[in-house]
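Dear colleague,

Thank you for sharing your sequence with our group. We've completed the structure prediction you requested, and as agreed, I am returning the results in plain text so they can be pasted directly into your records. Please verify that the sequence below matches your submission; if there's any discrepancy, let me know and we will rerun it promptly.
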Amino acid sequence: MITRLKPYPAYQNSGVPWLGDIPAHWDTERAKWLFQKMKRQVRPDDDIVTCFRDGTVTLRKNRRVSGFTNALKEIGYQGVRRGDLVIHAMDAFAGAVGVSDSNGKCTPVYAVCQPQSDASPHYYAYVVREMARSQWIAALAKGVRERSTDFRFEGFAAQFVPVPPRDEQDCITAFLNYIDRRTRHYIRAQRKLIALLEEQKQAVIQHAVTHGLNANVRLKPSGVEWLGEIPEHWEVRRVRTLVSSIDQGVSPQAEAGLADEESWGVLKAGCVNGGVFREEEHKRLPERFPIDPGIAVKTGDVLVSRACGSPRFVGSVGRVRSLRYRLILSDKTFRLNFAEPRLADFLVLAMNSRYFRIQVEQAISGAEGLANNLPLSSLKNFRVSVPPVTEAVLISEWLTSETKRISELIEATTQQISFLREYRTRLIADVVTGKLDVREAAANLPEVAEEPEAFDEAEALAEGDEVADEVDEELERVEADDEDGYE
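Please find the predicted structure tokens below.
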């Protein structure tokens, strides 16, 4: 279907920089002649509607209940109706534009629009999202806070947008909705495959770091309920007995951007995710910041994330295999200096296993664990099953070889998802702006009953669809006092 798409027979110059040439029978018009901003009263039973960066506009409770900044007072809130075009003024640059699937209420920082001509809200949601993708919105608006713009209705209303015939708008919408559903279905299937591969990889590691490689080895009770039996010649030791020292860094006022050849950087909390060292997870230090050589990161270091936005990565352990930047440890990162360096690779694997994860989860949920922070005292007391050094080296070498194939499959599948997302983005851009004619394809779409898809938070975050944060009380007060504020 997609391979048969062709350009339109003839084109004209739209005169709009982000739009380029459009089909000869399309027009352009300012958005103010197509949409009007609504100012509805809030009804007593209205729930909060939120606009997300993936273009979904729905009741907050349909998507998630955490991760929002709640207003102390709902000043200036407005009514939203199913079918309204909703634009998040502060987050439109990141794609927070869509058509509401629910009735409810929303913050005054949203522009709630209805067509005042023969315009399809769904088509123009794609149009505005393309304006965001092309960076046109970011170029127009003056930022009022970091990673934000101020794309109010007046800014939208002043923009020239394409105006295909209404039946063609519907064809484009139907086609793109179909492609989006198919793409999401495929990505979801690939993500399930990745999860299964990760599970397989974890099972291989878990068995090797608790039972070794000899299937006939005699086992003994470890004395730890969640660890079970271990080879009779292994020991259960606490981390504090395996290290000569544990280093922790500092918390400087860093700058935006990465370090370069002339500067230093400080690691962020997420420098170790899923056992992998992520060198780019850092920020550049000010030029005159005094560098302590004792907390400089070196190749071979074993690092532990003390804190991270997701509990999943708190306590994740990874080894620095290579280093391009000059970095120092942050206060959110521990460095383990093992008394026996030859145990390091085995212990990194063991400390990313399920049995070690149980200890991390208990620590961050206990009295000492605050805001997903891993206390140093807890880390020191974590227990690890430890084989003799020579056996530990053999196990780590075997696991490196055994899990390489699984890791390569995971990486290949992840790349497929990335390529598909890029292709979908390019296809949407070409169809919305008239570079490809989908009228015939839309007329021959298979009739598939639409079923509501369960929200997949991991998929949404992977797509970059972060929560569109609600504005705080002060911003709402300013909006309410503004002459363009909502009643």
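Summary note from our side: The two ends are 48 Å apart (CA to CA).

Kind regards,
the structure core
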